[in-house]
Specification:
heterodimer; A: 12 helices; disordered N terminus; B: 524 residues; alpha/beta; Rossmann fold; 2 domains; six-stranded mixed beta sheet; 18 helices; 24 strands; 24% strand
Chain lengths: 340, 524
């Protein structure tokens, strides 16, 4: 290959800064929206801008953030996972069942429960992915099936009852608050988001997640097997459902077969508001975190403003659609920017 | 005629209506029609007439502009210049529906079917018989049965369309055209998938239509059959009008002569200095299906071998099967003398074969991703350690290839979706150069690319051949193949019809080979 330099004259060597700008444009829009919403409620809603209120919000977004982190992986490849809510329920009863055993010391049962939750969730996710790829089925259908299966299993495992009496050290850790405003479960959510961000941004696997969502056929014709990666993203989504189950247990101290109903829709909403495209290939997990924040800030803010409970879903539903509408404008703007 | 069709003045709606019943003069007039796509001029100053009630045949090589012309008539897009007059009035349909309501019906090669609906629903979809918004099923099935009888299809109107074969679908499409009286029926290769019995049936229908004064515009690769349906023929070449004349008195060799001789402006340079050595790729007894003919050929190191043939002759299917992109029934493939089992592109790439697909946008590139990401996707292992990407390494490798191939882009972080066709193709080449392989298969590497970029791509192929790679080029551009190849393999109707060495290159000979198998089907 000739190392021709004549063509390079009209091309400037790209800087790290260019790349940073290119990647952060997506998050910037949602982050600005969050800031505006927070400022709005701070100005209008009584008690909104208080440490206690932020603490409350952080506690409330933890579960959804963890679920949405895994969901981001699936949606980035162009799939969807409707099963995370009931997989979470299954994992809470599995984890709680282990932790309430009298014959195990807390220092034995807690790590064991954590492992069991993660393994159960990952197994459900792996089955989702494998079934989708084996028979080339849409993930919507397969995970809708898993939603019901996992929910049924949760009832079987728990014998249709809630499980209480978790070990005290576990409950104490769940109530822990650092620096006055950072609850332990929120920190867990942040760690999950950071790990997800690292994987998507810096690993070969992350690159494939984006590439498959952009054009799966091109990835296949570039000499790779997209199916392996697609099974992996569902496994990740299941795994985060397992972690979210632990967060659920830390927060509510009870394992329940009817936990997590509707959680999958909140997770999807967070991902979408965060700027990730449902058709795959475009988006970011930091956006997902911001999306989860926007959802909860709206809910809390409206409550503090004295809005009726019935009004909240109307506003939140409108915001979800609005976010996607704005996203199309942002994409158009970005495209124009690129085409310069 | 009261108006001069050359005059392209805006015409009032009312005037247009006044001409509606004008039944003298040509039904369709094209005046200076031109159409450009990014990087190519598809049609250039095309003018000809189609007479009322005649069977008009449209001929031309691949890429001569036939499809563009049909799509203009079918209302898929408007011409960039010139005017079209239909039935005495200016014709500029905004949509296929408008084209169809004005009386032009196009039966496309790719069938537009609603797979999950019944035959009757497909046939009458545009105007379902209904009462107060409810479909009148009895009336619909009755009319569908009539139409099916007319095209000689012995199937129930309530059959679900997805159960039908391709030939039956083709006849359904023609029946659909009959359902609504059209003034001009455009048939794009209607016989490509029909058996000789079905073809006879089709011709019978066309003759009946002719008695009803329906004009037909007929496109076919099977030159023998055009005499049965055509009165006059128009030949296009390189997007330009060559001739329109009566078919009577024109023999097949005359027609082939009119079609060949595409202008050679963007010719590549043949590298005389390269002497091919040992075998790079060997394909033995390759069969796409159990019953398809066996394909055998080989490519030597340093050799550029062309594959010519009409679109749909099995060229693309063969190279995709070699690459493992589509399944094959049987066949042995050797790379550098070693037999390799290829069931998927992954194994092909591992064995040292790469395929630059015909369809860059859908199959070759990640349009929404950056230039660098597109280049390195073929081998991420090389720039990673323990699964972590080394971006500095990635950027350096991309910068080097982008500079070497002279890809015109401000930065390597630019999305390839914003690139021109030529630059996109260079990115496709770059990604395979990055991977490094011993056999390069290029399917239509210069389609839709401007002249300058074409020359650069030819030059690159020469360089790669000089480095000892075996190169296989599929192209519809015969002069292109003749300028850069050592040998040309000619596909015809799914068979490898022949091989022409460089010393014997001749457009006439190659085209005759390409048409060979299509003649035999009709028993001529």
């Amino acid at each position: 290959m000739s190392e021709g330099t004549e063509g390079a004259g009209e091309r400037k060597t790209a800087t790290v800064w260019d790349n940073f700008l290119r990647i952060s444009m997506r998050e910037a829009g949602v982050a600005i929206a969050l800031v505006i919403i927070v400022l709005f409620f701070s100005a209008t809603a009584p008690y909104f801008a208080t440490p206690e209120n932020f603490l409350k919000i952080f506690v409330q977004i933890a579960i959804n953030t963890v679920l949405a982190a895994g969901m981001t992986f699936v949606i980035l490849t162009g799939g969807i996972d409707l099963s995370v809510g009931s997989v979470l329920a299954l994992c809470t009863v599995v984890g709680a069942t282990i932790m309430v055993r009298e014959d195990l010391s807390p220092w034995m049962s807690i790590p064991l429960a954590l492992l069991a939750c993660m393994a159960t969730g990952a197994a459900c996710g792996a089955i989702n992915g494998w079934v989708c790829e084996k028979w080339k089925l849409p993930s919507f259908i397969v995970t809708l099936g898993m939603l019901n299966v996992a929910s049924g299993l949760a009832r079987v495992v728990s014998d249709n009852s809630t499980i209480t009496g978790l070990p005290q050290p576990f409950v104490d850790f769940g109530n822990q608050i650092y620096f006055g405003v950072l609850p332990s479960i929120f920190l867990i959510a942040i760690i999950v988001i950071l790990i997800g961000w690292f994987i998507l941004r810096f690993t070969v696997f992350g690159r494939f997640v984006f590439a498959i969502g952009t054009n799966e056929e091109a990835v296949r014709l570039s000499g790779h097997n997209p199916r392996v990666f697609k099974i992996a993203v569902f496994t990740i989504s299941g795994l985060t459902a397992g972690i979210a189950a632990m967060v659920f247990l830390l927060r509510l101290n009870v394992g329940s077969p009817i936990a997590g109903i509707g959680y999958e829709l909140n997770a999807i909403a967070a991902v979408i508001i965060g700027g990730t495209s449902l058709s795959g290939g475009k988006g970011s997990i930091i956006g997902t975190l911001v999306g989860a924040c926007i959802l909860q800030v709206l809910a809390t803010g409206l409550q503090l403003l004295g809005a009726e409970d019935n009004v909240k879903p109307i506003v939140i539903g409108t915001v979800i659609v609005l976010a996607v509408v704005l996203d199309t404008y942002r994409n158009r703007y970005l495209r124009k920017l690129e085409a310069r | 005629m009261t108006t001069d069709p050359h005059e392209v003045a805006p015409v009032l709606e009312a005037d247009a209506a006044a001409w509606h019943d004008d039944d003298t003069g040509p039904i369709l007039q094209l005046r200076g029609v031109g159409k450009r796509f990014p990087g190519v001029v598809a049609l250039r100053n095309v003018s000809f007439d189609i007479q009322r009630g005649e069977g008009h045949v449209l001929l031309g090589e691949n890429g001569a502009g036939k499809s563009t012309l049909i799509n203009l008539l079918g209302g898929l897009f408007p011409p960039d210049e010139g005017s079209i007059w239909f039935n005495g009035a200016p014709y500029s349909p905004a949509s296929p529906l408008e084209a169809f309501s004005k009386g032009i019906r196009v039966v496309h090669q790719e069938l537009n079917r609603l797979s999950n609906l019944t035959v009757a629903e497909n046939l009458l979809f545009e105007h379902l018989p209904s009462r107060r918004g409810l479909v009148n099923f009895r009336e619909m099935n009755r009319r569908a049965a009539e139409l099916l009888a007319e095209v000689g299809l012995d199937i129930s109107p309530s059959t679900v369309v997805s159960r039908l074969g391709v030939a039956q679908m083709q006849l359904i499409e023609i029946a659909k055209a009959l359902a609504h009286e059209s003034k001009l029926l455009v048939l794009d290769e209607p016989t490509a998938t029909l058996t000789s019995k079905e073809v006879d049936r089709l011709f019978e229908i066309l003759h009946r239509l002719k008695e009803r004064k329906v004009t037909t515009l007929y496109i076919s690769h099977r030159l023998q059959e055009i005499y049965e349906v055509g009165d006059r023929v128009t030949v296009l070449r390189d997007g330009q009008h060559v001739t329109t004349e009566p078919l009577k008195g024109l023999a097949i060799p005359d027609i082939v002569r009119l079609m060949v001789g595409r202008t050679v402006t963007d010719q590549g340079v043949f590298r005389e200095d390269i002497v091919p050595t040992g075998e790079a790729l060997a394909v033995e007894d390759l069969r796409l299906t159990e019953t398809s003919p066996a394909i055998d050929f080989s490519v030597r190191k340093g050799e550029i071998v062309g594959i010519a043939g009409l679109v749909g002759s099995g060229r693309t299917e063969a190279v995709r099967a070699i690459f493992g992109a589509d399944p094959k029934a049987s066949g042995t493939i050797r790379v550098n003398g070693r037999p390799v089992a290829i069931a998927s592109p992954k194994e092909a790439v591992a064995a040292g074969i790469c395929l630059m697909t015909e369809d860059r946008k859908q199959q070759g590139l990640l349009l929404e991703m950056s230039c660098a990401e597109n280049i390195t996707i073929t081998d991420l292992k090389r720039l990673s350690r323990k699964g972590l990407l080394d971006r500095a390494k990635e950027n350096a490798a991309s910068e080097r290839l982008v500079a070497g191939l002279r890809v015109k882009t401000p930065t390597i972080f630019q999305k390839v979706g914003t690139f021109s066709g030529g630059n996109q193709q260079k990115v496709v080449i770059a990604k395979w150069l990055y991977r490094g392989s011993s056999v390069l298969i290029c399917d239509e590497p210069t389609r839709g690319i401007d002249v300058g970029a074409k020359a650069e791509i030819y030059e690159l192929m020469g360089q790669l051949a000089a480095e000892g790679k075996g190169i296989l080029v599929v192209s519809s551009d015969l002069p292109e193949l003749m300028s850069i190849c050592h040998r040309i393999l000619v596909f015809s109707n799914g068979r490898l019809a022949g091989e022409v060495p460089r010393a014997e290159f001749d457009q006439n000979r190659i085209l005759s080979l390409a048409y060979e198998e299509y003649g035999r089907v009709r028993g001529n």
